[in-house]
């Protein structure tokens, strides 16, 4: 089924025509081209870090990430992203009221059972559409999901807290909710590696977050963010994914990019990366 049923609660697209083509045919062709031209071979990794920028400047990086999971036998796609407007300590994790998320290429169903299970797992989860109606970070992933995993339900989660504690709580709740189905889950953490910074600052911060990710140091990501050593947009999403991957997990840098040529201030950059995450054979959350 590609279209939400009548009277269903649907979250409409808000950045179509801005971050990605608003025309159905053009968007479908764009996604297909980006995936086909990607240097990353189709894979079946457990999770991926993908940027949430426009396709014009981050499309190749997005496609690299999505190619890395395209052969996975997914029954659910879990989406983790930041709340840009309010991400202070102690903020909630927002689940959608909507049962469908619309895109120009078709509508994606929400895994209502998983949403209800997560909502019952911890008081930090809130079912509230308002943050989802204001955020673009998950939306830019949806056309890739529609193309690669047609009909597969999604679990959209917006994290209004950048802290290490938030990542730990979220990972624990996800581990409990999906404990019997990891072979059929894809987890996507949508994050930009740096915010708008001068070139030298962006490079230094990018290298800092890249090292933490390569080391699977999910606690270090939260600590670095707390002392303002990184400006990553979505640090707790990355940290939760790395924790979920468990002991013996592996990460690979798939692609890199930046906003050069897409910003009115060419001396300021946002750095992007796609990172593949393979779940450890031992299972469980990643230990210190």
Structure explained in plain terms:
By secondary structure, the protein is α/β, with parallel strands linked by helices. The protein has a single domain, classed as LigB-like (Protocatechuate 4,5-dioxygenase, Chain B, 3-Layer(aba) Sandwich), CATH 3.40.830.10. 35% of the residues lie in helices and 21% in strands. It has nine helices and 13 strands. An eight-stranded mixed β-sheet has the order 7-4-8-3-9-2-13-11, with helices on both faces. A three-stranded mixed β-sheet has the order 1-5-6. It has a two-stranded antiparallel ribbon with strand order 10-12. A hairpin with a 2-residue loop joins strand 5 and strand 6. Helix 6 packs across helix 9. The radius of gyration is 17 Å and the shape is globular. 53% of the residues are buried. The model has no long low-confidence stretch (mean pLDDT 92).
User: Could you please say which CATH topology applies here?
Assistant: Protocatechuate 4,5-dioxygenase, Chain B
User: Based on the structure given, which CATH architecture is correct?
Assistant: 3-Layer(aba) Sandwich
| Estimated helix fraction | 25-40%
Largest sheet: 8 strands, mixed
| Count of alpha/pi helices | 9
Order of helices and strands: EHEHEEEEHEHHEHEEHHHEEE
Number of strands: 13
The CATH superfamily bears the name: LigB-like
Oligomer: single chain
- Strand line-up across the major sheet: 7-4-8-3-9-2-13-11
Mean of residue pLDDT? 92
CATH class division: Alpha Beta
Which class best fits the helix and strand makeup?
Answer: alpha/beta
Net shape = globular
């Amino acid at each position: 089924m590609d279209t939400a049923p009548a009277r269903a609660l649907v979250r409409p697209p808000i950045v179509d025509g801005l971050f990605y083509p608003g025309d159905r045919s053009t968007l479908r062709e764009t996604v297909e081209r980006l995936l086909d031209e990607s240097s990353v071979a189709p894979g079946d990794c457990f999770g991926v870090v993908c940027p949430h920028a426009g396709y014009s400047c981050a499309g190749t990086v997005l496609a690299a990430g999505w190619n890395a999971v395209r052969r996975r036998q997914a029954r659910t796609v879990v989406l983790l992203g930041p709340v840009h407007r309010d991400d202070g300590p102690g903020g909630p994790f927002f689940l959608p009221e909507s049962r469908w998320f619309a895109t120009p290429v078709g509508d994606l169903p929400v895994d209502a059972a998983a949403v209800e299970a997560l909502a019952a797992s911890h008081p930090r989860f809130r079912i509230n559409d308002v943050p989802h109606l204001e955020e673009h970070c998950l939306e830019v992933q949806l056309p890739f999901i529609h193309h690669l995993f047609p009909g597969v339900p999604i679990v959209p989660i917006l994290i209004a807290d950048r802290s290490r504690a938030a990542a730990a709580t979220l990972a624990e709740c996800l581990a409990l909710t999906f404990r019997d189905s990891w072979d059929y889950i894809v987890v996507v953490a949508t994050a930009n590696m740096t915010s708008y910074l001068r070139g030298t600052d962006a490079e230094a911060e990018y290298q800092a977050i890249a090292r933490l990710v390569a080391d699977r140091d999910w606690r270090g990501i939260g600590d670095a963010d707390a002392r303002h050593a990184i400006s990553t947009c979505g640090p707790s999403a990355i940290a939760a994914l790395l924790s979920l991957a468990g002991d013996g997990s592996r990460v690979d840098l798939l692609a890199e990019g930046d906003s050069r040529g897409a910003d009115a201030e060419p001396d300021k950059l946002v750095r992007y990366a796609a990172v593949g995450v393979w779940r450890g054979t031992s299972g469980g959350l990643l230990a210190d």
